Amino acid sequence: MVSRRTFLALAAGTVAAPRLAAAQQATQRVALYANVGADLTHFDVDVAGAELVKRATVALPAAVQYAWPHASKRYLYVASSSSAPGYAAGGTEHHVTALAIDPKTGALTKHGEPIRLPTRPIHLSTDIPSENILVAFNNPSAVRVYRINKDFTPGEEVKQPGTIDAGIYAHQIRTSLDNKLAVLVTRGNEGTPTKAEDPGALKVFDYKDGVLTNEASIAPNGGKEFGPRHLDFHPNKPWIYVSIETQNKMYTYRIENGRINPEIAYKAETLAEPNNIRARQAAGTVHVHPNGAFFTVPIAPRRPSSSRARRSSKAARTASSSTQLTNRPANRGRSSTPIPTNSTRAPFISTRVGGYSWPSTISRWMSGRGMR
């Protein structure tokens, strides 16, 4: 079973198909990249046999934190750090490294030199055309933008015109599908007997050519009992799905007239028994399937974890087989198969919902397990 400390870096990438993690037939070649520490290993995915075949390993400057593909699917940008997760004492080696992806085999090779970062990066992504790399930092909470050079290597930092309020404990940075907004997900921190809760928020910026402006904050109830960890966009509807880590919920927001409506459109529970929590559990990363029919979100307890695939409803694309949407009837979906802890085979999930098959669901699950 994969642990939170064994970071599986990236959703599987299809080489034959035009989109990552979208292979629909066993004849298509699928590459998966996973890491332990600084070693990033390429696996071939045998879709028909539900097996992983280990290939070559590339060593990064420090432990891998996150990875994101270039829009061309020919390059992979990897954030690495020698710092421990959370608020632990900081290391000194923080980088973004570019790796070239062989279009025939999926093999990775170093491409140019890494760039240094000031602190541990917790997440990175590119904007939609992959002209810039956006990096989120959790301690101190921050966001920075770096150019992608014409040779696809990471370049210089983009100077921002003003001060950025990066909230408390940034966890993810994404641009909207029209490339006009950037959203920094800031989780805050749960309260303790000796320390009050730190509020969470979605920090929303106008985005243009690497520049962040006109910041606005979405923070229900002032950010109290609102611990967002991760979001994803529906591929063809104006909907945003946000996993609320500390409250074990999924929220849906709407994009209206180019802005994010701060009102929560729909809510769903991520736990089967939300009023009977026997150990700490936390909603993790959310990934919408490329066809928009469903999304996955892992649940991370302090014991073997599970992942639940949720099918979208016709109206809100947020219902699942075991949750009731606020003021909406539940829709029947199909959960993904739990990964057995004693399995001798490489773990793999295949989920079929509404006639769609997603043979690389495992890659999404693996990617989600990597976020600290």
Plain-language structure description:
With 372 residues, this protein is an all-beta fold. 2% of the residues lie in helices and 42% in strands. The chain is built from one helix and 27 strands. The N terminus and C terminus are likely disordered.
- Report the span from N to C terminus: 16 Å
Radius of gyration over all CA atoms, rounded: 19 Å
**Shape, please?**
globular
Continuous helix count: 1
Residue stretches low in confidence (pLDDT < 50, at least 5 long) are 1-26, 302-372
**Quick one: how many beta strands?**
27
Average pLDDT, all residues: 78
Could you tell me the strand content as a percent range?
A: 35-45%
Structural class estimated from helices and strands: mainly beta
Helical residue percent?
A: under 10%
What characterizes the major β-sheet? Answer: 5 strands, antiparallel
Précis, in short:
This protein is an all-beta fold. The protein has one helix at 361-369, and strands at 10-14, 30-36, 39-46, 51-59, 63-69, 75-81, 94-101, 108-110, 115-116, 121-126, 132-138, 141-148, 154-157, 170-175, 181-186, 201-208, 211-218, 228-233, 239-244, 249-256, 259-260, 266-269, 287-288, 294-299, 306-311, 351-353, 356-358. The radius of gyration is 19 Å and the shape is globular.
